[in-house]
Design brief:
Blueprint (H helix, E strand, L loop, with lengths): L12 E3 L3 E3 L5 E4 L2 E6 L11 E5 L8 E3 L5 H37 L20 H33 L3 H37 L10 H9 L8 H14 L4 H18 L4 H27 L4 H6 L1 H26 L6 H18 L2 H11 L1 H5 L7
Antiparallel strand pairs: 1-6, 2-3, 4-5
Helix pairs in contact: 1-2, 1-3, 1-4, 2-3, 2-9, 2-10, 3-4, 3-5, 3-9, 5-9, 6-7, 6-9, 7-9, 7-10, 7-11, 9-10, 9-11
């Protein structure tokens, strides 16, 4: 708008209709905007991406939405919801890739099963490494789903809980974990869909099986509505450094309470989950403390570890949530859904033994890895 402040502070939001509306409410003349082209994309072909041209002839007419110069603020209201939705998109694609890979592994017969001397032909689901890939897909998908649903619960409580203090607590936690939902759930979807192709073997490389589509569709999720790096910088800057890590420390307190329950449980499997979670929590505490100590004085070094920190937070919070689910599942093992709850225990155990150990490496990348990120002279890249 004329006389708007420079930069992003001068952005306003407009709705530009395809047709103008007459005073009597009927459709009027066509507005001056056209779809100039449709982009040819790697994936998500069902969702068109277009180049729009406004005002090439007579000038397009747009209508101001809200107040002038507050367009970016309004857009962020949509963006925060969109980030959660894209995180769920990552979960959904992961689940679909897992379901298809599982169905293929249950039907495809190939090779001799290691250690099986019967000579019977069995589906590849009986091969240990195929089971490993499927368990990895399942555990990571369930971990991301648990996080996405937990944050959705925070959103509901932040809006509707009768206690104002609880509303504020959940609003803070929603803001803390929104970039983790968006970044972590979509990053893990890359590996899940990759494994989906691998389970199919050579057939996974053939487009007709559909396994490739999951990988191509998942790829955009780490990019649109803010790349993983943007989410990570938001997490360490606005959500950690700006408030002195208070919301994260409060969350870590809850993680520790669950970890103590797991570690002190009579069941050996739950104890092992608790032991792994303890190591993950320690890694998250170390990385958080390092960021708080270095963010202001060494901003580039902090930013160099932002994405590893986001992944670390996702791994540990996801492991915590699966640990909570495991505690509930153990209590209900005597009921009619014993098989279902038994599967929850196995998935939580796998996550604790195969995914949570990555937390230490991510912690090391945050605390000790920044210098090597920044050390290489530009001319040697």
């Amino acid at each position: 708008l004329p006389d708007a402040p420079p930069g992003v502070k001068g952005i306003s939001l407009f709705v530009v209709p395809k047709f103008l509306v007459n005073d009597d409410g009927s459709l009027g003349a066509r507005n001056d905007l056209v779809c100039a082209s449709i982009e040819h994309k790697m994936g998500i072909h069902a969702s068109a991406t277009a180049v729009m041209a406004f005002g090439e002839k007579d000038g397009a007419i747009g209508y101001l939405v809200g107040e002038a110069n507050r367009g970016l603020e309004y857009m962020f209201t949509m963006m925060n919801h969109a980030r959660l939705n894209v995180g769920l998109e990552g979960v959904a694609i992961s689940e679909r890739a897992y379901q298809q890979a599982l169905a293929y592994a249950q039907e495809r017969v190939q090779g001799r099963i290691i250690g099986d001397k019967s000579g019977d032909k069995k589906p590849i689901l009986h091969h240990p490494d195929v089971r490993r890939m499927l368990m990895d897909m399942k555990a990571r998908t369930e971990g991301t789903r648990a996080l996405a649903y937990y944050v959705a619960g925070c959103m509901d409580r932040a809006k509707a809980h009768p206690d104002e203090a609880v509303r504020k607590q959940n609003q803070s936690r929603l803001e803390l974990l929104t970039p983790v939902v968006k970044g972590w759930c979509t990053e893990l979807a890359q590996g899940v869909t990759w494994n989906g192709i691998q389970v199919h073997g050579g057939m996974g490389f053939i487009e007709e099986t559909g396994a490739c589509q999951h990988m191509r569709d998942a790829r955009i999720t780490t990019i649109y509505e803010g790349t993983t790096a943007i989410q990570a910088n938001d997490l360490i800057g606005r959500k950690i450094a700006r408030e002195g890590g208070q919301t994260m420390q409060a969350l870590i307190g809850e993680l520790k309470a669950t970890q103590a329950t797991l570690a002190g449980h009579a069941d050996g499997g739950l104890q092992k989950i608790g032991q792994s979670l303890a190591r993950g929590i320690a890694a998250l505490e170390d990385a958080t403390a390092w960021l708080l100590a270095n963010y202001d004085a060494r901003p580039q070094q902090a930013a160099a570890g932002a994405v590893p920190y986001l992944k670390l937070a996702g791994h540990v919070v996801g492991g915590w949530l699966l640990g909570r689910l495991a505690l509930v599942a153990h209590e209900r093992m005597g009921g009619s859904d014993a098989e279902f709850h038994g599967a929850r225990l196995v998935v939580a155990r796998y996550f604790a033994e195969h995914v949570l150990p990555e937390a230490q490496a991510l912690r090391d990348a945050v605390v000790d890895g920044a210098e090597s990120v920044l050390a290489l002279p530009e001319g040697l890249f």
